[in-house]
Specification:
The protein is α+β, with helices and mostly antiparallel strands. Among the domains are: 121 residues, no CATH class; 123 residues, no CATH class. The chain is built from 14 helices and 14 strands.
Length: 426
């Protein structure tokens, strides 16, 4: 973790401990604690825990990065209970504005220290118990999703058969370091849009620059989840969003001229409502990183090379192939069971298409299925599929499509690129 990040984390923690000190110095004497202790970080919360007859080690645990902030808030809530403050509004103010709330309590004419025994006698209503449990669950889940792991669902077939559509997966935030949300003011468990509406689920009143703690570099062949770079601007309609990115829509509407298409969109805001999204609210994509900054990447005759060396293909990765058979009838069950090709799948990323010749097909095959098809004699000839013979897919609508197009044409091109920089955004 960079030194500057450590300084930021503990500066926030220090402020949480010191800002309420003035109000605490007025409250401490009511609890029999010397007022000067309120101005000593950690010692002040130690004394508060001691007065509440709660484990004092939590005063030390609050020094944990990030999690300690929430522990401090919990200590403040328990402290207010010792003064007979049990309402939700009291606990909310103790958590979020203790620097203003504690002086208020200290100077209130009815404030008195009731002690831990009186707190134990206080009984919450059933509704309050459920409310407190719900708040705890939301806070805990938010912390876990931000700093530990997060669940995702695979939306498209771009990584079949490695990952399938609607597969559930958990993504570790420790692999490359947890990223601090750019827009912390947002509705929990919602990405960028409120359900059943087109309204944003977040506010940009507070915007945090891109920050990643405990960061580590992406390695070749890592499967990574990231925010779609071209998703910074989207047309906020169901038929567009990330399915037809804004920049692709500009290209389409302008007949290949992006500037002309942009003018069409900007001059018709009702027909093409635009939304600009911060990095953390762009669509999530999952891809395999085959090259990193500084690498030279080539695709030659169906072979991926990185820095001149052949890169091993993932075991279940697929490519489109032209398949010429010996004229035998194809059995859909055999194709499905033996070669993992679904003749009936025509949505998303079709796996099978017959060309005009009766024994000429386009199939989406893994390396294993390709070798097996040749070995069994089902295929007489098998070559990487050409783009103009491939199924009519929405291939050029996304980065996924762009890469698929390159892969399908790789038998007739030699493509070379040198990456000068790489920024991980999720």
């Amino acid at each position: 973790m960079p030194v500057k990040d450590i300084l930021v984390v503990y500066t926030i923690q220090l402020l949480l401990l010191l800002l309420p000190s003035f109000g605490l110095s007025k409250m401490f004497p009511k609890a029999g604690i010397a007022s000067w202790k309120a101005f000593v970080p950690v010692l002040n919360t130690w004394e508060m825990q001691k007065a509440a007859k709660r484990p004092t080690y939590w005063a030390l645990v609050q020094l944990l990065p990030i999690a300690g902030w929430f522990i401090t808030m919990g200590i403040y809530i328990e402290w207010t209970k010792l003064f007979g403050r049990f309402a939700i509004k009291d606990h909310a103010m103790a958590s979020f504005i203790p620097f203003a709330y504690f002086p208020y309590i200290a100077n209130h004419k009815d404030t008195r220290f009731i002690g831990e025994e009186a707190v134990k006698k206080h009984k919450k209503s059933g509704g309050r118990e459920w409310f407190d449990a719900g708040i705890f669950a939301v806070v805990a889940a938010t912390l876990i999703r931000t700093f530990v792991f997060e669940a995702y669902t695979i939306p498209t077939g771009s990584m079949e058969k490695t990952l399938l559509v609607n597969d559930f997966l958990f993504v570790s935030k420790f692999s490359y370091g947890p990223r601090i949300p750019n827009t912390p003011l947002s509705v929990p468990f919602v990405h960028h849009t409120l359900p059943f509406t087109s309204a944003r689920s977040y506010s940009e009143l507070i915007k945090i620059p891109y920050t990643r703690w405990f960061e580590s570099p992406v390695q070749r062949n890592d499967v990574v989840v990231f925010n779609f770079p071209a998703g910074d601007t989207v047309i906020n309609l169901p038929q567009y969003q990330s399915e037809v990115p804004y920049y692709q829509a500009c290209q389409n509407l302008g007949g290949g001229n992006r500037d002309a298409g942009r003018q069409v969109i900007l001059s018709n805001p009702d027909e093409y409502p635009l939304v600009v999204r911060p990095v953390d609210k762009r669509e999530n994509y999952i891809k395999r990183c085959v090259a990193i900054a500084g690498d030279t990447l080539q695709i030659i005759d169906g072979v991926l090379k990185v820095n001149g060396a052949v890169s091993p293909a993932p075991p279940h990765s697929e490519l489109y192939y032209e398949v010429i058979t010996n004229g035998q009838l194809l059995d859909r069950d055999v194709l499905k069971e033996e070669y993992n090709v679904d003749m009936d799948l025509q949505e998303g990323q079709p796996e099978f298409q017959q060309l005009p010749d009766s024994n000429h097909f386009i199939m989406l095959l893994t390396a294993e299925a390709k070798d097996k098809m040749l070995k069994s004699g089902l295929a007489k000839k098998l070559t990487c599929g050409c783009l103009k013979k491939a199924p009519h897919l929405p291939l050029l609508k996304t980065i996924t499509a762009f890469m698929n197009a390159l892969l399908m044409c790789m038998s007739i091109i030699s493509w070379k690129i040198k990456a000068d920089s790489f920024t991980l955004t999720a």
